[in-house]
Design goal:
By secondary structure, this protein is an all-alpha fold. 93% of the residues lie in helices and 0% in strands. The protein has one helix at 2-89.
Length: 95
């Protein structure tokens, strides 16, 4: 009876070790998958940061050009007003 009890305890330890190995193997695979996914996400983030940086530069250029265009439009309107004033106030031979 003591020998059978010892064998059962040994089998229990072996089964416990197998279970732990099985769980460890599964967790290792899961960890590897998570690491691969993390690397993929980091690569995607790096690409998106580059795209965001390029967009920010283009948008800043757009805003600058928009400001220049607004000033050119304003100058154009001012020149048109001055031209109308000159034409309306000029003596007849110069109109």
């Amino acid at each position: 009876m003591l020998g059978e009890l010892a064998r059962l305890e040994t089998r229990i330890k072996e089964q416990r070790a197998k279970g732990q190995n099985f769980v460890r193997f599964g967790l290792t695979r899961e960890l590897d998958r998570a690491r691969r996914q993390t690397r993929l996400l980091e690569q995607q983030l790096w690409v998106q940061r580059g795209e965001a940086s390029r967009f920010t530069a283009r948008f800043a250029r757009y805003e600058t050009l928009k400001g220049h265009l607004a000033r050119v439009d304003e100058q154009h309107r001012d020149l048109e007003k001055r031209l109308i004033e000159v034409r309306t106030k000029a003596p007849a031979p110069y109109a």
